[in-house]
Design a protein that fits this description.
- The protein is an alpha+beta fold.
- It folds into 2 domains: 2-35; 39-113, Beta Barrel (OB fold (Dihydrolipoamide Acetyltransferase, E2P)).
- It is built from 3 helices and 5 strands.
- The protein has helices spanning 2-15, 18-30, 39-43, and strands spanning 45-53, 58-63, 74-80, 94-102, 105-113.
- β1 and β2 form a beta hairpin.
- The longest helix has 14 residues, at 2-15.
- It is globular.
- This is RND transporter.
- Residues 1-23 form the signal peptide.
- Pfam families: CusF_Ec (PF11604).
Length: 115
């Protein structure tokens, strides 16, 4: 009996992700697969750089709602994931960016010029 419970638990742990993978593949196929926007593009928000503080490693961005974080539109400072990001932009630039919580701090993890 004990051996059966352990085997069942191991199978559940090892095989638990397979149904999710199949469901995601089915979902992607239903919604156009490769022609749909990439997940990375979907996470990018639009904003305008207001200030760059290289010594603090931060940039201030006026942005629309950040739906992935449940935040309304506002202007706020974010930590840059990499110092080189601060050299890619200047105050007044329109950008597309991604923000994630890294070590408890809101951090810009992707940055590109807006089209």
């Amino acid at each position: 009996m004990k051996k059966t419970l352990i085997t069942t638990a191991l199978l559940a742990l090892l095989g638990g992700g397979a149904p999710l993978a199949f469901a995601q593949a089915d979902h992607d196929a239903h919604h156009g697969g490769a022609s749909a926007p990439s997940e990375a593009d979907a996470k990018l928000s639009e904003g305008t750089v207001k200030k760059i503080d290289k010594s603090a490693g931060k940039l201030t961005i006026a942005h629309g709602p950040l739906e992935s974080l449940g935040m309304p539109a506002m202007t706020m400072a974010f930590r840059a994931a990499e110092p080189g990001m601060l050299d890619q932009v200047k105050a007044g630039d329109k950008i597309r960016f991604a923000v994630e919580r890294v070590g408890g701090a809101l951090t810009v993890t992707a940055l590109e010029a807006a089209q």
